Amino acid sequence: MDKLQTVEERVAHLQRMVDDLSDVVARQDAEIRRLARHVGLLMEREADREAAEGAIPLTDQRPPHW
């Protein structure tokens, strides 16, 4: 019976760790999505600014080593 209790305790501990890690991954996913939206908005804003100045957008420029 002692071995069974030890195994049950380990399983409970592992389940708690899995739940905690799942929460961390969910928070990180939300943060990555939020940051990706911000980067997209910043890229659009910069492209609009460059277009207003008449400059070639950075995404259309060739790198200097080409």
Topology:
Layout: H1 2-53
Give the C-alpha Rg.
25 Å
Strand coverage percent = under 5%
Structural category is mainly alpha
* Regions with little confidence, pLDDT below 50 for 5+ residues: none
Helix run count: 1
DSSP strand count? 0
How would you state the average pLDDT, rounded? 89
Largest sheet: none
Strand-and-helix sequence, N→C? H
What is the helical fraction, as a range of percent? over 70%
The coarse silhouette is: rod-shaped
Describe the model.
- With 66 residues, the protein is mostly helical.
- 79% of the residues lie in helices and 0% in strands.
- It is built from one helix and no strands.
- It is rod-shaped and about 80 Å long.
- The mean pLDDT is 89.
Question: Which key terms come to mind for this protein?
Answer:
66 residues, mainly alpha, 1 helix, 0% strand
